Amino acid sequence: MALRTPEQYKQSLRDGRAVFFRGEKVNDVTTHPVIGIAVEHACIDYRMTEEAKYRDLAVVKDGAGEYSRYFHLPRNGEDLRKRSELIAASTREGATLVVLIKEIGSDALLALHLIAERMAAAGKPEYRERVHNYHRYCRDNDLAVAVAQTDVKGDRSLAPTAQDHPDYYVRVVEERPDGVVVRGAKVHTSVSTNTNEIIVLPTRAMRAEDKPYAIAFALPINTPGLKLIASPHGSSKKDSFEHPISARHKMMETLTVFEDVFVPKDRIFLNGEVDFAGLLALTFVRYHRFTAVSYKLPLLELLAGAGYAIAEANGIVRAAHVRDKLTHLAAYHTIVRGLIEHAAATCTIEEGGLAVPNTLITNVAKYHFAHNYHHAVQIVQELAGGLLVTAPEAEALTSEATRGYVMKYLGGAKGFDAEKRLRLLNLVGDLTASDFGGYQEVLAVHAEGGFEAEKLQAYREYDCKTVTSYARKLAGV
Amino acid sequence: MALRTPEQYKQSLRDGRAVFFRGEKVNDVTTHPVIGIAVEHACIDYRMTEEAKYRDLAVVKDGAGEYSRYFHLPRNGEDLRKRSELIAASTREGATLVVLIKEIGSDALLALHLIAERMAAAGKPEYRERVHNYHRYCRDNDLAVAVAQTDVKGDRSLAPTAQDHPDYYVRVVEERPDGVVVRGAKVHTSVSTNTNEIIVLPTRAMRAEDKPYAIAFALPINTPGLKLIASPHGSSKKDSFEHPISARHKMMETLTVFEDVFVPKDRIFLNGEVDFAGLLALTFVRYHRFTAVSYKLPLLELLAGAGYAIAEANGIVRAAHVRDKLTHLAAYHTIVRGLIEHAAATCTIEEGGLAVPNTLITNVAKYHFAHNYHHAVQIVQELAGGLLVTAPEAEALTSEATRGYVMKYLGGAKGFDAEKRLRLLNLVGDLTASDFGGYQEVLAVHAEGGFEAEKLQAYREYDCKTVTSYARKLAGV
Amino acid sequence: MALRTPEQYKQSLRDGRAVFFRGEKVNDVTTHPVIGIAVEHACIDYRMTEEAKYRDLAVVKDGAGEYSRYFHLPRNGEDLRKRSELIAASTREGATLVVLIKEIGSDALLALHLIAERMAAAGKPEYRERVHNYHRYCRDNDLAVAVAQTDVKGDRSLAPTAQDHPDYYVRVVEERPDGVVVRGAKVHTSVSTNTNEIIVLPTRAMRAEDKPYAIAFALPINTPGLKLIASPHGSSKKDSFEHPISARHKMMETLTVFEDVFVPKDRIFLNGEVDFAGLLALTFVRYHRFTAVSYKLPLLELLAGAGYAIAEANGIVRAAHVRDKLTHLAAYHTIVRGLIEHAAATCTIEEGGLAVPNTLITNVAKYHFAHNYHHAVQIVQELAGGLLVTAPEAEALTSEATRGYVMKYLGGAKGFDAEKRLRLLNLVGDLTASDFGGYQEVLAVHAEGGFEAEKLQAYREYDCKTVTSYARKLAGV
Amino acid sequence: MALRTPEQYKQSLRDGRAVFFRGEKVNDVTTHPVIGIAVEHACIDYRMTEEAKYRDLAVVKDGAGEYSRYFHLPRNGEDLRKRSELIAASTREGATLVVLIKEIGSDALLALHLIAERMAAAGKPEYRERVHNYHRYCRDNDLAVAVAQTDVKGDRSLAPTAQDHPDYYVRVVEERPDGVVVRGAKVHTSVSTNTNEIIVLPTRAMRAEDKPYAIAFALPINTPGLKLIASPHGSSKKDSFEHPISARHKMMETLTVFEDVFVPKDRIFLNGEVDFAGLLALTFVRYHRFTAVSYKLPLLELLAGAGYAIAEANGIVRAAHVRDKLTHLAAYHTIVRGLIEHAAATCTIEEGGLAVPNTLITNVAKYHFAHNYHHAVQIVQELAGGLLVTAPEAEALTSEATRGYVMKYLGGAKGFDAEKRLRLLNLVGDLTASDFGGYQEVLAVHAEGGFEAEKLQAYREYDCKTVTSYARKLAGV
Fold first, then answer.
1. d(CA C389, CA C379)
2. I need a labelling partner for B292 at 20 to 30 A (CA). Which of B179, B351, C9, C208 fits?
3. Are A230 and A223 in contact (CB under 8 A)?
4. pLDDT tens digit sequence for B239-252
């Protein structure tokens, strides 16, 4: 059963999981008015393996049989490039919203492979087999896998042990012969309402005294004690004329609570090895930022494309300042795309023969994306005009009382009647001036680690030594 | 009756006006679930004249009796400064959303005063008395007055007479002995659903052949043939915990249709004087951008203040990069405020003794505000963190099933329990990552004229000649 | 003798001072090929008091007789505005290079007045009279006065007492009944080669253990032990066709060494009062940044003016992207000028009735200037074209062998023959692409305190409390 | 003789060429005090083929024997990558100043190859053999080759035939059986004082009426009638302590005059084919911007390296704002390098099997470099401090009178005595605050086509259609 159908996927989510929405436990996520949209969105992944045009990209066939490319271990730049292409293609299907139900989980699996090899080399061989087994389990059952990494953290300026209570970071509260019991909570856990599994990783480097906090593991979503408190951000009822993207596409995030949850031994991938906690966190991010930049590409395509389309509809596409703005959007897209393709092409082959995308370039690409996103939004809003927030919407076009006026007066350039123009305006409005637009902005600066994190990692990866030697040589010192 | 109560104001809106919302005619705007919020918001203006702390600012007492300061004709910089202060104060009461029901109308009245003087000097004395009378009428009845300026324009690269149909710009279709009949439509008409009057101005300079389009006038909102098609942007049902600003504050915009509307003579302020059409448009903007920058100040205060408050709640306020970001917000606010105060102080006294804010500085202030707004939003979102869009909301805090987890895990720095922190997050979220946030972004770049318009006017006002002479002198040419 | 002639000023510099240039002691600074240019530049100050068109601005007449406005104690915003206008006017005469021989000294005198009052209030009355006497002495003898503030600092991350040797900050090495002996060195001391006096101020806040470093005083430049080691930056021989500014205008900076220099009691203005050291440093800067922004105005005028003039000469002034660039330069100038005028108008009246420019606005103005300078340079270089660095220069226009070609081929738009165009190009080149251009760039980001200092002071002065309260109120916390 | 020695190269320049410097004809460029420095700099190219560590990179060995890689026709991405690497390596040897004596000439040769193929396909086969022969001639004689492209242009807003005189663009004034006679002038011709040959290309697209202006050809530098009027920018006498780069490295530019110069038939590569003039201009630029970005890499390395080195010397390398600035420099370098490597890897194979770098990415890389250069300069100047322009220089360190003070007081962090620190400061000063720094700034925005040209070409190359389709699909229009 290495490839599941959308229906099988949906069926698998009816498993008694403890998901809460607006304070109430959700009986069936697949039929919930909000989470149900997220489930349908996630089905994109399972549908693509069935579609002829995506099959070669979405499915790998090798000794292990046919399975989702996400679970394929990349061995070279070409593998990474295809992985990136698949992420972009599914996000494009998702109307710029990433699907993520396998992307993020496989990022974590790849990181666990690398760290398990390193721990084995350091005299801790037991984790390697567990990781391999778990990887095969996910792959062969075509599972959807979330990742919980960011601890709630309390006062961010304090270490785990210095907080008001000891549970601001997920920790082991009991060691048992057959496993451990964990307590704590993670935030920003994406897609967890509708995956089968969740992988839990440490959020940062730990010191010797933080031993109970150096813990990584995986669990089925319906594990007792695991509570998923979903955010209702962006969940107001939406019309698909007014919100062409967000009425149909949604991703859920949860506050993920571990209320004394038991983790069996074979699902533990790190336990007390404080030296590897930070490394695991960073290694996950090495893959995950590559995923992130890959899934941002359709968003950048849409900013450029919608900018052009609406400028055309408004009759201003030939104005000098408009061309300047469109060029800016084109350059923004080109830089990010060029860099991420280059990051794949210049990957390194590391422990166990795994290909890792060029970390410096990946981080710089992510930073460039994040730093310039709001400005790109500004440009697209400028091109679209104030009608973005002042235009009449769906019913004004269907009502007899108003349709005539709207059609007569809101037409644009030749070939763009009022309806076409409003559809383009609504696309830009949904993308940039709605709660979904706000979601995209916040994701730009926070998802997969914020600015400061990306800058720090770029700084560390940059070959400062060589360029400083060059400076010293020219200075004669 | 120079000062009305909020109740009198509300009563005056039940006058049979033709307002359409989502395709349906609205019976009573004051009780409409969406427009009613806008009406309550507008009441701020009438409430302030009753409050002791605002009375001196909001009310002028002179030979004409006691009346709203908005209708006071400014004679010097101090008058302008107080006008600016009143606009800022009422917007502050409006939680960063401008009230506008008198601001914009009086901007238009001031422009009409100036142009009427100029037309009188050019041999067209009849408009002056009409303007004076109309001004007194609005003042003495304490009316709320909207302004419709932006024509729908069709293909923006074409002139009024070159469009698909001749009605893309409002025009006179019939001259009668007692007035004119007008046809056409305007967009982005703010507050028109809930004012008493509407002033209509040309949108741009006109050429000789555009004579029918050179028309300015005023009408009661319930004039037959006047149709207001309201935009439902941002009208989803909102909880005040999750949307502390936009659940309580709202401004309406309409597509304003003139379906062969009769305008009596004494309400016509320009009719065919093509040479004065562009001048009237620009003169209105000279006052209106001064209003605009004044009402943006509370928004800039809130960006800086919310940035600080949430950084504090997150325990990061002392980090170097955070201080850097807060300084950026402080400088942004300081520059815009300093410039607008300076624009008042360096006003010019023009026709009829009216004080006009320094146009160059006003435009530069507006441009600086507009150009940097999205970046400021980005900073505040960075300071707030991803919880902006991933946090549980209202019911998760009240539900027994989830409240314990939320309170335990979402606490922040000392003194900030989960509820306080979520309230601050929701404030930032409402301000920057919601449909209201999108509304603010779009307003920043489009309201009161877009970027390119501000740049053009700044360029024209700048004393290029003096600086070029200086350059030539130093170059010796 | 409250107003000296340029000749008297020059004569006063032949006093045996120990100035070193390229390792050699300079006999007479007024005739030195490089420093002599700086002396002539400084004469602008003495010449302006003689010129009818500047006399009212440059000279104050009151109970103390006629004297240079620089020595006038400002009592209100108008005094500050005139001070600012005088600084700008003399810098304009100096072709964008500040004169500074009284500006900086009087900034220090004003700060000393304020601190002496504060120290008197704190039980140290002796300094007040010394400051008053010294102020009168400078004023009544129309002296040129330099200020040495920045210590050499050694390792900038270490305190004065933690350095490799104790002399990295100027300190008292011996207390005598009639004065003190000081040792150490200051950098970046502007105009010291050609002033009569030098005032020495502490560079930063001091701790209790730094007592010997808490020292402020004044000395004649020719005091034994005072050594001025001048920087030769920008001192290559220059033709005034190729370098229309810097061939005629120059400012000197020195490494200023105090080799066990005796300071008599009446010239000591702070000695061991560690609590006032930082305050004095900051108070000086409050005035000095106001001076700084004032003297930057002609530079901003020239950037805008030269940008326009060269665009015109190149025949591109009507291109859309050119107008955009010119508008940017105009806005940059307007913001900085508007803010500094506003800083004068919103001054505070402090100890002894002295007017101090609005510190928040001054710092923000300085920061805005500094942050955007390089970008403005880029724009002007773009407008000018590559000929800035590839054009033939002076002799190619006079030589018979080449003049014909140059005149034929380097002409520009109508009215701009090759010579005119080259003159404009050379102006831009001297201003932006020469060692003088580099000097202006470095001054922009470092003079009168760098970026980080301005940001820090702006952050401190900003009313964070009020805006944070506003945010909290709106959030309901 | 496919590889020449530096000595052979220098000898070849003593050929009677008509080079003018400051109005005088230069007898021997190799011994001229200014041009001689440029000649020595150019020798880097000939020296590298002799050095073991560069031989594999600098020399190609194939059926045509051993010859300089610059003359190798690239067939794939790897060829382009090596070409880029060689350009960067020689520029690195040149202390960030490009050598260019073969780079630019071979860019032109490659473009001529492509256009000759296209013209052959369009029925004009005669040019192909001429290009091939000329290419072999340059390669087999290891020649240095300049390119003159930019016409003087007169009023830039007018076409060639609409100018004050017809010679503002180079044109054919006489057709002869054995060749043509050309007249006109080009500007910004780099390295022409010290190459053997010069290739002349049209500067822009031509219309039917511009036929005489559609001309491309090559000539030996000493051809009668060819006059090179050199720019003396940056030619003041320099000490290598104070100017560690520019005292030793120099590139010359000329106003290149064609005073009725005869061009023999086999040296003519375009003559009247107006349709190919613009294409040739653009094709040259497709290679030349790739060259440009390649040679900018050492400059970006030095900005990052010098920034780090001087921050270390100043003892501030660990400050948060410093790390932020260094990260910015690192990201800037990484983006430009990543993109240009990617442009090589994603080349297209065009006419005659020639590999052309990805034009979109090359232009975006160039644009990103150019747009951000001044800001990077600002950062490095901030890190270095004001001593950049106020420090004593060479002689102050050797003179007995001053050396002691300088050594005592200008030391920095541990390990950086005054001399070391001054050397680093001088490096930064030479790079950013000298006439050489100005030269680099102007080159950044103008060389190889300015901003607007790069933006235009990027806009044209960008796949606007695909992204607009995507937008339309999502909008449902």
1. 15
2. B351
3. no
4. 999 999 999 999 99
